[in-house]
Design brief:
The protein is built from 13 helices and twelve strands. The chain is an alpha/beta fold and about 400 residues long. It has a domain of about 240 residues: Aldolase class I (TIM Barrel, Alpha-Beta Barrel). The strands form two sheets. Strands 7-6-5-4-3-2-1-10-11-12 form a ten-stranded mixed sheet. α7 crosses α13. The longest helix is centred in the last third of the chain and has 26 residues. The protein starts with 14 loop residues before the first strand and ends in a 5-residue tail after the last helix. The model has no long low-confidence stretch (mean pLDDT about 95).
Length: about 400
């Protein structure tokens, strides 16, 4: 494969996922992450080298979003991020505006963290599954203790400092039973932006509780949409909002190989870049990095201390990975009615659900793309139908 400029528009890294540490202070039952018992931490030199590689490879555009994830980011001290943010900014300024986000279980948030978030305008996402009974069923400490109360203390600190945050909940089979109680909990706690992931079959978590419950998931989404609309957007559900955006305006196009493709960062080389705490890096779905899969060299394409991102595209590991990711995109283009609104799905889900990056539809596709799209579209059709009916003579 030649340089990223072979794409039109030329490829740029839009989302950089940095693993400050693989360690997590809790043990969720549905966690996919390998190595979450390890205590390594990313060095300032590694952070600085990431930024240098992006700059030197021409992958840094006008804006770069950085998410600290793939482990609990707050087990590191606020001072780590003061230093890391500076190390990342120095090679990229002033050409690239860098914004930072953390996805956290919120248990460690205190006044020092809140001051850091404000100092650097960090976007904060809190992982909370809603009512205590749902949350504590799966999100427990390493000793098996409930975590909901500690999460709420962290949320209270954010509010005390006037900091906005969004929430991501993991929806399981148990969540589907009472969408109203789920919605009411977030509304009661003033959480306006809510993402509804589900317990995907990835990594060490081999089976989703949504398997066999897809009709119930549809009814769950339909009720969430009803409640969100009736509340005037008091709680906005990310997947439903994204579906509306896709209906209103399909994905932009990227040209490569003489064809136009819907823009999907998970199937474009280096558009989404993941870097482990030791400097190993990968692309495509961020959940792939470090997963044990010998055929793809555990999805490690290189290390920032030994070579650049563009250089890695010439290696055998990338060639195998890119061949099979593109096979999956081609298959989706041939067979899926949602292709123009999706662009080829998520490689990690194809791999763990089918054992093949060249596969097509997954439970993830149906749950996160197709059903939200269809639920929103059907509501629009019902609301517009009376206005579009033509009276018969």
């Amino acid at each position: 494969m030649r340089a990223a400029a072979d794409f039109s528009p030329a490829l740029r890294t839009r989302l950089l996922v940095l693993q400050g540490t693989p360690f997590c202070n809790i043990a969720c039952t549905y966690c996919y992450l390998p190595g979450r018992d390890r205590h390594e931490r990313m060095s300032p030199d590694t952070v600085h080298r990431v930024a240098q590689r992006l700059r030197d490879d021409g992958l840094a555009g006008a804006e770069l979003s950085v998410v600290w994830h793939a482990g609990e980011p707050l087990v590191l001290a606020p001072s780590f991020y003061d230093e890391a943010f500076a190390a990342l900014a120095e090679p990229l300024s002033p050409q690239t505006r860098v914004t930072h986000a953390v996805q956290t279980n919120a248990m460690l948030i205190d006044d020092d963290w809140c001051r850091l978030f404000r100092r650097h305008a960090v976007s904060v996402g809190v992982s909370v599954d809603g009512p205590q009974v749902l949350h504590d069923a799966h999100r427990r400490s390493r000793s098996g203790q409930a975590t909901h109360a500690a999460v709420m203390r962290g949320i209270d600190r954010l509010r005390a400092h006037g900091l906005r945050f969004h929430a991501i909940a993991v929806v399981t089979g148990s969540t589907l039973a009472d969408p109203d109680a789920f919605f009411d909990w977030f509304a009661a706690h003033g959480i306006r932006e809510l993402g509804c992931n589900f317990d995907e079959a990835e990594g060490g978590h081999r089976r989703s509780s949504l398997a066999g419950r897809e009709a119930a998931h549809r009814a769950f989404l339909e009720r969430l949409l009803e409640r969100s609309v009736a509340s005037g957007g008091q709680v906005v559900i990310r997947e439903l909002a994204q579906a509306w955006q896709r209906i209103a305006e399909p994905l932009p196009q990227v040209r490569h190989g003489g064809r136009n493709w819907p823009d999907n960062a998970q199937v474009l080389p280096l558009a989404l870049l993941s870097v482990a705490s030791n400097g190993d890096f990968s692309t495509f779905s961020p959940e792939l990095l470090g997963q044990p899969w010998p055929a793809y060299d555990d999805f490690v394409l290189g290390n920032v201390h030994r070579g650049g991102f563009l250089e890695s595209l010439g290696g055998d590991a990338f060639a195998r990975l890119w061949r099979d990711v593109r096979a999956g995109v081609d298959a989706c283009a041939r067979t899926c009615a949602h292709f123009d609104y999706c662009g080829g799905g998520a490689p990690v889900n194809k791999l763990y659900e089918h054992g093949d990056l060249g596969a097509t539809e997954t439970l993830y596709c149906r749950s996160m793309i197709q059903r939200p799209f269809e639920v929103v579209l059907r509501r629009l059709e019902r609301e517009l139908a009376p206005q579009l009916e033509v009276a018969t003579p």
